[in-house]
Design a protein that fits this description.
The protein is α/β, with parallel strands linked by helices and 539 residues long. 42% of the residues lie in helices and 15% in strands. Helix 9 links the parallel strand 6 and strand 7. Helix 12 packs across helix 13.
Length: 539
């Protein structure tokens, strides 16, 4: 099938109909490839069947669903969501009770285990299926009404090995599985993907070794490489044309990763990568950064402040910068509600987004959370719709009680931690802002990890001082030792390639150390790479 406006690499990947692995560089249009593949599949399968599309974030899954839905394509039987959501809702909730009794949906889902549970386990690490089989601590934890998020993939594999009903269900309902950001998969997530392929689902894995940034969570790029090397089961496709970044930005980013990377021609020899050394600490430098931002927006017609992002590795640097900014900004901080991966947490999240305006319609809340599955009775569903539709007419102090009523009407009774997280949001203006539509006057301020998958006209990458980024460990002889250099290099690469037209790299002359003392700062390791000479402008 010939599809317009696609490269030959993209077309080859779209038209291949068997198990495959795709490596895709930043800005290469991988979402377009997955979207086109899904839209080719949907009309060919039975009405009761769908596909599984696993993405790294809720935002990415919603974007993919919306794109696949366009022009009346039916995705109602398909799953779009994160790996944790898939494991929980498609396997753990419906089938764990077959193996361990009681109802899994009554359990509390936790991201981290309290110390009181440590004594249950032989070895409290990121659990494998084998661990779950041999260590009865996981069953004891379940009997206490707790599901530990780190165990989700292991539990999913445990269920598939022990429940014929789960196997029959997945084989009957789904025909294909797509798994994005495969370089950030853990061992158990990788095993789950392979199990689904072995069940007969046609598998497509998409990843990029250069964007592997989650080793601290137990992920490893080796699992992506394993698929590439398995030539009997998977066909390998490479999509390596960056359509997002200006060539000078792409050249700089490529040389950060590989000193021998080829340099692409740059139109008019225009360099869009600029380095600034700013006086003072991060908070003081924010005044100059504000001036730079205002100048960029003023100079460029149709450019909004929201098209500009300030990125750094850690929240400490971002807080320091945001305290000194003279322009409006949105600081993306961690939200407890997003860390709780339960259906109730997602419903509360979307209800807040509806109330504050980030979600525009009640129907989006219903579809995102498959409310019909919880409330099949027509009368109850109509009553629920009225209650959700009436949210925008309420005062903020009425929200908590209404949220309780909505979840109770859905039929869920255990939601204390989710409600506590909602209350925390409603008492914090910075957190509330994250549920409102983005204002054109707001600079986007976030960590490099949070920027993954996003793009901006201009990226301002701050925190490029020695000891700040990359992470440097103290040694007895004070030699330079960067224990996380590969991951930090990938993070730096991710940050640079978020920029479409302009990338600004900032080092300050002062920094605040771990003792909250202001000391002199020197350029980051990344600013001393000799292979970058001639690929940037110095200010």
């Amino acid at each position: 099938m010939k599809t317009k406006n696609l490269t030959q690499q993209q077309e080859l990947a779209i038209n291949y109909s068997h198990n495959m692995v795709i490596t895709a560089c930043p800005g290469s249009g991988k979402t377009t490839v997955v979207e086109e593949k899904v839209r080719n599949i949907l009309p060919t399968i039975n009405v009761h069947q769908g596909i599984i599309a696993i993405t790294f974030t809720r935002k990415a899954s919603q974007e993919l669903r919306n794109r696949c839905n366009s022009n009346n394509y039916d995705t109602k039987q398909s799953f779009f969501g994160t790996i944790d959501k898939f494991c929980l809702e498609e396997l753990i909730y419906p089938f764990l009770s077959h193996l361990w009794g009681k109802s899994a949906s009554e359990c509390e889902v936790v991201e981290k285990l309290d110390k009181k549970y440590n004594e249950l386990f032989l070895d409290k690490q990121i659990p494998t299926t084998f661990d779950i089989k041999v260590d009865d601590g996981f069953k004891k934890l379940y009997d206490k009404g707790v599901l530990w998020m780190s165990s989700f993939a292991g539990l999913a594999n445990f269920i598939l090995e022990g429940s014929k009903s789960a196997v029959r269900y997945l084989k009957a309902k789904y025909t294909h599985i797509f798994m994005d950001e495969y370089q950030d998969s853990s061992k158990e997530q990788h095993e789950l993907f392979l199990k689904l392929v072995d069940l007969g689902l046609i598998g497509t894995a998409v990843g990029d070794a250069d964007q592997s940034i989650y080793e601290f969570r137990g992920s490893s790029v080796q699992y992506l490489n394993n698929l590439i090397e398995d030539t009997k089961k998977f066909q390998y496709f490479r999509i390596d044309v960056n359509h997002r970044c200006h060539p000078s930005i792409s050249n700089y980013a490529s040389r950060v990763k590989d000193p021998l990377a080829p340099i692409c021609p740059v139109p008019d020899m225009e360099c869009r990568v600029h380095r600034f050394t700013l006086e003072g600490n991060h908070k003081q430098a924010a005044i100059r950064i504000s001036e730079i931002i205002t100048k960029i927006v003023t100079k460029k017609e149709f450019l909004n402040y929201s098209d500009i992002a300030i990125l750094a590795k850690g929240n400490k640097v971002l807080r320091e910068v945001s305290e000194g900014l003279l322009v409006d900004y949105r600081l993306y901080t961690g939200i407890d509600l997003e860390k709780i991966k339960t259906p109730v947490a997602r419903i509360f999240h979307d209800l807040l987004a509806l109330y504050f305006g980030k979600i525009s319609t009640m129907q989006e809340v219903l579809d995102n959370n498959q409310i019909k599955n919880y409330v099949p009775e027509k009368e109850n569903l109509l009553s629920l719709k009225e209650k959700i539709n009436g949210l925008k007419k309420l005062e903020e102090n009425q929200l908590v009680q209404t949220f309780e009523e909505i979840i109770t009407q859905i039929g869920i009774n255990n939601f204390a931690q989710e409600l506590e997280a909602v209350i925390k949001i409603l008492t914090d203006e910075t957190l509330k802002k994250l549920f409102k539509p983005i204002s054109q006057s707001e600079i986007q301020v976030m960590t490099l990890h949070k920027s993954k998958g996003l793009e901006f006209h201009t990226v301002i990458h701050i925190g490029l001082e020695e000891w700040v980024f990359p992470y440097r460990k103290v040694t007895q002889d004070w030699s330079r030792y960067y224990p996380e250099l590969e991951q930090d290099t990938n993070l730096h690469y991710v940050g640079i390639t978020r920029a479409k037209e302009l990338c600004i790299l900032i080092q300050t002359t002062k920094r605040i150390n771990s003792k909250e003392e202001e000391i002199n700062a020197t350029p980051s390791y990344f600013l001393n790479l000799i292979d970058l000479e001639g690929l940037y402008n110095q200010h």
